[in-house]
Amino acid sequence: MKKKENSQHRSDPHVGEMKNMYLLGLDVGTTGCKSVIFTPDGEVISSAYGEYRLYHRRPGWSELDPKEVWNTTKETIRRSINKGKIDPKQISALSTSVLGDAFIPVDDAGNPLYWSMTTVDARAAEQTRWWEENFGADRIYRITGQPLTSSMPIYPLPKIQWLREHESEVYRKTAMFLCWEDYVNMKLCGKPVIDFSVASRTMMFDIAKKEWSREILETAELDENLLPETQPAGTVIGQLDSDAAKETGLSEETFVVTGGHDQACGALGAGIVESGPAMDATGTVECIGVILKTLSLTERARLQGFAVHHYVIEDRYFLFGFNPTSGVILRWFRDNFAEKEREEAKKKNIDVYDLLMSLAAESPLGAKELFFLPYFEGSGTPTFNRKARGVFLGLTLAHGKNEVLRSMLEGLSYELRRNIEAIEKHGTEITEIRAIGGGARSAFWSQLKADITGKPLVVPNVTEAAALGAAILAGIGAGIYENAEEALRGVYKEKSRFSPQAENMKRYNRYYDVYMRIYNPLVRIFDDLSELTKET
Amino acid sequence: MKKKENSQHRSDPHVGEMKNMYLLGLDVGTTGCKSVIFTPDGEVISSAYGEYRLYHRRPGWSELDPKEVWNTTKETIRRSINKGKIDPKQISALSTSVLGDAFIPVDDAGNPLYWSMTTVDARAAEQTRWWEENFGADRIYRITGQPLTSSMPIYPLPKIQWLREHESEVYRKTAMFLCWEDYVNMKLCGKPVIDFSVASRTMMFDIAKKEWSREILETAELDENLLPETQPAGTVIGQLDSDAAKETGLSEETFVVTGGHDQACGALGAGIVESGPAMDATGTVECIGVILKTLSLTERARLQGFAVHHYVIEDRYFLFGFNPTSGVILRWFRDNFAEKEREEAKKKNIDVYDLLMSLAAESPLGAKELFFLPYFEGSGTPTFNRKARGVFLGLTLAHGKNEVLRSMLEGLSYELRRNIEAIEKHGTEITEIRAIGGGARSAFWSQLKADITGKPLVVPNVTEAAALGAAILAGIGAGIYENAEEALRGVYKEKSRFSPQAENMKRYNRYYDVYMRIYNPLVRIFDDLSELTKET
Predict the structure, then answer these.
(1) What SS3 state is found at A130?
(2) N or C: less crowded end of chain A, CB within 10 Å?
(3) How do the residues of chain A divide into helix, strand and coil, expressed in percent and rounded to 5?
(4) Rounded to 5°, angle at Cα A400 from B338 and B383
(5) Distance from C-alpha of B265 to C-alpha of B102, rounded to nearest angstrom
(6) Phi, psi torsion values for A272, nearest 5 degrees
């Protein structure tokens, strides 16, 4: 497509034709699925959301029911088409953005044989430790780009080994182990193809060679035939099966295109195609991702917990850090200590988070020297310590709810800066922050992040960045866009921009210095707490 | 008085006569004054309370208006007599328990010349530092028993020097510097006599020699004539002036007897006459006091902040530690984070603190490994660090309001244990805890303190321990009791007793071990916070 950049040319018959061509971005997440239909300009035609359950059959287990997820996904696609009141034939192509790590063992006929363990399912600690001790976490990192630690047994490979040991009947019957991207692709067009970005998370993919790692599979005694075909993101796999078309309401003419890992799709939706801008996706969890100039896998980055994936553009690599408890801490506060604000928000018909943000804004900068460490489920990158815990430090009688809230937002933002600095030390300069996710809705927090990091923060005009990223990949596959850069010229728009305020930056530099001195002396205490928790 | 121990002898005419003799205990505190009329058995006949204002004319200043305090005191005495519907002649004697540290410069006629600076008035930091640097805090401790640090300029002597430097006209006119005990005594019977316990707090009293310290007064270039006569507690000074009798509603026949420092009076009211039981007075502040077997002033105790006073029994010494923010932290939580509970308590017509205690009781022991350091205004004994700040450490998403509340009570109780252990290391074994003040009202907290300290905790059957202690001193002065021991045989009664539960004790030992490891690594961070506060 040669997209016209000037909207005055909209009457051009070619563009008129284009206007009736749509792209569907599917976003299969941990607790629900979104189906969003976009114009090639990135405007949302319609959007639908369906929820499914996350099961915890045993402590430490966390699973999805594959049938339930697929049924919900089908229905969600159908609802988005109906809501859009469009002819399904108008959807040129679709791609899928998926949660990482989760996988499904399927039989010869493609039927699921077991639950789908998600990232936080912790059952494979022993198998993960085995790799640490016998293969080496450094070696795994050099091949796959994934930091390995037995305290976070998140990857599919050790979980597959767990299945072999504990569910041998399931393992014996398994014809393939699929991630959610390839599973959905198989359901839609019969071909279980996975893209490089999702494959990167399996702990079995050689990211430099762009193929399943022989070395790892041999060590695991795992047949490569059990794994799906890999392709770059944005590759056409086929067109809809007639059965799948009936089930979803889609047309058999629609192309199925490889999508990608949700963080990478989100970054693409936020307009990131090269090294420079950092994605800051703030939801329950916060992810900070950048495109690397060159593939670089250092020991320091591994120990800091930074994962390196294929990006959803070929030959570009995506490094990302995370804070496992970001927005979820605000929810924790809302649920436990903001009864009054919940009631007030209800009465005034406003969002309770907007109310909490306005309280935080009433506190002076620095929250009267109250500091907050947001490690409610261990720390993410770059301290990467599962034993870390949340801390309020510096309390006096002068601190009220406003200061407590502000200290929480400041602490979360200091962690963002800490990640940015670690990434920059890794060799990738960050020019600006692209904020997506629920956190980007708050102007106060966005300005805080700009002031604390010293980086301009841009909120793109997009609500569902991961679905948009997937739709862009679909469009590339279908030939609507020549490449991602071309797509984004039309699609990417800034909604708002927050520049660091010099005076605030200066003051926050001083607070950040102190913040950075808090963690180290606490490490030994976190060890003590962890011991105590084990004993009790 | 030969008090009958058997109540069956109540018809004895001598006892009948005794029953119509009363003792008045006056308690002049920081924010209000209590007047309580007791029978010699310690039963309350009537009680009145009057409030006065604490003025903060400048940041760091904290003052009482002497005229306002005296007017309120007069009225409060009168109201207690009226409420009791007794003939004032029935009041054999009265004594006064007072806040320490506060003093009043008076002219020749006994009229106040200036405001009365209270303990926390911080203006004399420079003068206090002068003593530290030129005289030595260790030397001050060896003479007076008072730990001196310029970060806590609490004592009268440096404040008198501040007056000399900054209010020279006031200083020039001053005939005497009186504490509140001697001021009230002067008002009642014309003689400004101070007891040894209150004199101990002035930083001018030689506690071994029981006289004003020549050495210190000479260094300060302060004339001893500016200071009042000193006497042991429980010494008759005189009888009511006719003017004072008219002003207060008291009788001219009533004896005025030296009382004492409110903490020592409280301990006496809690039945403490010898080494063994520890007073634990939990109000806004928490004070832990014991009678020493022998006068012992070690360097360690000084650095830990333990003050040694004369007790209100001659030749007995009272050592006491403190936690500057105890109950006040619960009030802080109530005011900032318990809107829902405040409303609920109002609806159900119950005390909100009772409700908060019941929530804390719902948390498991150890608050799910959440720890709390209550240093909201610096730490008291034995860490004694003005720069310390409050900390919650160990937060996870599993912690709710119940755990936060329990962690606060546990943290406060760990501090009690820390003080008990420091006092025991100082050579005084503690046999049981006598709990008084608002904190003693909670059975849950009392049991927690017993479980955490491993000491039985007794709540005496007394609501106004300091006023009762003063009344006992009045009775000793008036000859109604031969001595404190005899008085307490009739007066002291247990209301409830909490024994440490073996299983809980064992578990808390483990938690306490971890608690004790938290403070040290934080000291450097507290220094950082203090620097930051200074800068901003």
Answers:
(1) helix
(2) C
(3) 45, 20, 35
(4) 100
(5) 17
(6) -95, 115
* Cα–Cα distance measured from residue A448 to residue A438, given in angstroms and rounded to the nearest whole number: 15
Set out the domains of chain B in order of their start, with CATH numbers: 15-270+462-495 (3.30.420.40), 327-461+501-535 (3.30.420.40)
**Interchain contact, A525 vs B393, CB within 8 Å:** yes
Structure-token match 């797509």, residue found: A487
DSSP string, B37-48: EE-TTS-EEEEE
Task: Name the region of A256 (left: φ>0; alpha: ψ -120 to 50; beta: rest).
Answer: beta
Backbone angles phi, psi at A412, to 5 degrees: -60, -35
Q: How far from B208 is each of A90, B222, B290, CA to CA, in Å?
A: 99, 20, 18
Which helix or strand (DSSP H or E) is residue A232 part of?
none
- Amino acid making up residue B237: I
- Taking the Cβ of residue B55 and every Cβ of chain A, the question of whether any pair is shorter than 8 Å is answered with no
Nearest to B240 by CA among B228, B232, B230, B248: B248
DSSP-H helix ranges across A255-400: 262-269, 299-303, 327-337, 339-348, 352-362
Residue A324: strand, helix, or coil: coil
First to last CA, chain A: 63
Quote the CA–CA distance of B322 and B306 in Å, as a whole number.
8
Chain B CB contacts of A329 under 8 Å are 397
Q: Do A397 and B332 touch (CB under 8 A)?
A: yes
pLDDT in tens, B336-394: 999 999 999 999 999 999 999 999 999 999 999 999 999 999 999 999 999 999 999 99
Residue B196: both structure tokens together: 């040894």
Mean of all residue pLDDT scores within chain A: 95
Angstrom distances, CA of residue B14 to CA of A225, A462, B1, B87, B254? 107, 93, 9, 19, 20
Which among B328, B392, B536 has CB closest to A391? B392
At how many degrees (to 10) do helices A352-362 and A443-453 cross?
50
Other beta carbons within 10 angstroms of residue A17's beta carbon come to: 9
Q: Are strands A116-117 and A63-64 parallel, antiparallel or unpaired?
A: antiparallel
- Quick check: A521 and B517 CB within 8 A? no
Find where tokens 């928790």 sit: A533
Chain position carrying tokens 């501090």: B415
Please give the Cα distance from A301 to A303 (Å, whole number): 6
pLDDT for B20: 73
Closest C-alpha to A72, from A117, A29, A24, A119: A29
DSSP letter at B480? S
CB contact under 8 A, A390 and B400: no
A511 touches chain B (CB under 8 A): yes
Q: SS3 of B483, please?
A: coil
Q: Cβ separation of A521 and B521 shorter than 8 Å?
A: yes
Q: In whole angstroms, give the CA distance from residue A404 to residue A395.
A: 9
Whose tokens are 């509970």? That residue is B341
Task: Give the span between the Cα atoms of B117 and B454, in whole angstroms.
Answer: 39
Q: Is B125 exposed, middle or buried (0-12, 13-18, 19+ CB in 10 A)?
A: middle
Q: Which of B116, B100, B2 is CA-nearest to residue B52?
A: B116
Q: Cα–Cα distance between B429 and B451 in angstroms, integer?
A: 18
Residues 6+ apart with CB under 8 A from A468: A25, A36, A38, A42, A265, A268, A269, A462, A491
The number of CA neighbours under 13 Å toward the Cβ of B484 is 23
Q: Which of B424, B257, B232 is nearest to B316 (CA)?
A: B232
Give the closest of B369, B396, B536 to A377, CB-based. Answer: B396
What interface predicted TM-score (ipTM) does this complex get? 0.92
* Tokens standing for residue B159: 């404040």
Taking only the tens place, the pLDDT of each residue in B393-444 is 999 999 999 999 999 999 999 999 999 999 999 999 999 999 999 999 999 9
- Whether the CB of A518 is below 8 Å from some CB of chain B: the reply is yes
Dist. CA B404–CA A411, nearest whole Å: 19
The residue type of A369 is: E
